[in-house]
Design a protein that fits this description.
Length: about 425
């Protein structure tokens, strides 16, 4: 495959000229780039993006998703937010539902072969994925496509023709494949095909730009190579960072319990965002909110010079995100509920009550908090309880439980004791 390292002579960018195409006024290139580059990790190559924008026509921006889960969180929405910015600039987007590629499973960033999904699972997940994605995207400028429509009919000759454009040595250069190869971990042969099929998606829809997480860069560049080999103008690869979860440590993931779901109730969504560490506020504003880049730049400067008020900024951030996913005004209502419950140190009126008999003393004469919090239904597992304790997210009568303090003296618990997880889950012993 050809390299993207080679430079190109710069073309006039018409930076001071607006373009009107199909009734859409496109901003000057420099103003578009200000929005597009905000929060991005890589644009490969950026000069080609400038030339595409300078043509003054709406670009076709592609994002492919394998619907491996029915529910999305803010981390999933990061590339969707960037696509919406493209739409607001006058461009169109193509959201590809990977009902073909999901049958293989994307190997990007994986230490082992991803279990393939059934067609039934993919279709069920895809329906809810699209519904939630449309909370972010403009449906009037969004094309929904299913890559199974063109991948499944491919015959042997066509598959061999696609695969002949790639070589194993280059594919093994991928960090994830290379690591598995060196460590002697299994790499299934069908996993090599995944970037080939993703690249073919770009050929079929004639993508100008393809988006993905930073762990997707190899697949995105494969699309450039295949388009070039087909005599097409190659797409530009644009990657977005992985969103750090509410714990401030790991990437946002349901498996880590550090996520904000797009379908979370407004009060839960608001509370989760209020729980993020102060250092994450600028990142969340840039990647998750509808706040313009210039205003986010001002927030960055306030953090840099020490004039920022993280608490008030978190309130504004949480309100903005709740409005985005639940409708205008819902953020204010969630804020008022939050203030009534937490800012004024009020325990919710509708707190769930459980008999004191759920408290069990173990052989060591102590109460294992993991089991207790499962029994009062404010965590789903003892493992989740332990993770939350270590993160300072568990309180008894308003006092945080120390990290690794999984067992407590029975005397700490009595009738009337209030148990709390985060800022949204409560129980009282009666």
């Amino acid at each position: 495959m050809e390299s993207d390292v080679a430079s190109h002579a710069a073309l006039p960018l018409c930076a001071s000229q607006n373009h009107m195409v199909e009734g859409v006024v496109l901003l000057p290139v420099d103003k578009q780039l200000k929005v597009i580059t905000s929060g991005t990790m890589q644009i490969v190559p950026e000069e080609e993006l400038k030339r595409k924008l300078a043509k003054g026509r709406p670009l076709n921006v592609k994002l492919g998703v394998d619907p491996t889960s029915p529910d999305l969180h803010l981390g999933h929405a990061v590339p969707l937010r960037k696509m919406r910015q493209f739409q607001d600039l006058g461009h169109t987007v193509t959201l590809i539902i990977g009902n073909g590629t999901a049958l293989i499973g994307d190997p990007s960033g994986r230490d082992s072969t991803r279990p393939p999904l059934t067609e039934e699972q993919v279709e069920a997940n895809a329906q809810t994925y699209v519904e939630q994605a449309m909370k972010v995207l403009d449906p009037t400028r969004t094309t929904i496509a299913h890559n199974g429509d063109w991948l499944k009919p491919l015959d042997l000759a066509q598959m061999l023709g696609l695969m002949s454009r790639f070589n194993v040595a280059r594919i093994l250069e991928r960090e994830d494949f290379h690591r598995r190869y060196v460590e002697g971990r299994s790499i299934a042969l069908h996993e090599f095909i995944y970037p080939v099929l993703q690249a073919y998606d770009s050929v079929v829809i004639k993508a100008d730009v393809e988006m993905g997480g930073n762990d997707q860069i190899f697949n995105l560049l494969a699309g450039r190579d295949l388009m070039r080999a087909r005599g097409m103008e190659p797409q530009v690869a644009l990657t977005m960072p992985l969103l750090v979860g509410t714990d401030g440590v790991k990437k946002m993931s349901k498996s880590y319990g550090n996520y904000v779901g797009l379908t979370d109730e407004p009060s839960d969504m608001f509370g989760k965002i209020m729980s993020i560490t102060d250092e994450l506020v600028p990142m969340y504003f840039r990647l998750c909110s509808t706040i313009p880049p210039d205003e986010v730049d001002a927030i960055d400067r306030a953090y840099a010079d020490g004039t920022a008020d993280p608490y008030e900024l978190k309130r504004a951030l949480a309100s903005n995100i709740v409005d985005l996913y639940h409708g205008a005004g819902e953020g204010t209502r969630a804020m008022n509920a939050f203030d009534a419950t937490f800012r004024k140190s009020e325990v919710p009126d509708d707190i769930a009550e459980f008999p004191y008999s759920v408290v069990e003393v173990n052989d060591q004469g102590q109460v294992y908090l993991g089991k207790l919090f499962v029994d009062v239904k404010i965590v789903k597992s003892t493992g989740e309880a332990r993770r939350l304790i270590d993160g300072g997210g568990v309180k008894i009568n308003g006092k945080a439980v120390a990290s690794r303090c999984y067992n407590v003296e029975p005397s700490l618990l009595s009738k009337g004791t209030v148990l709390q997880v985060g800022k949204r889950r409560w129980a009282r012993l009666v």
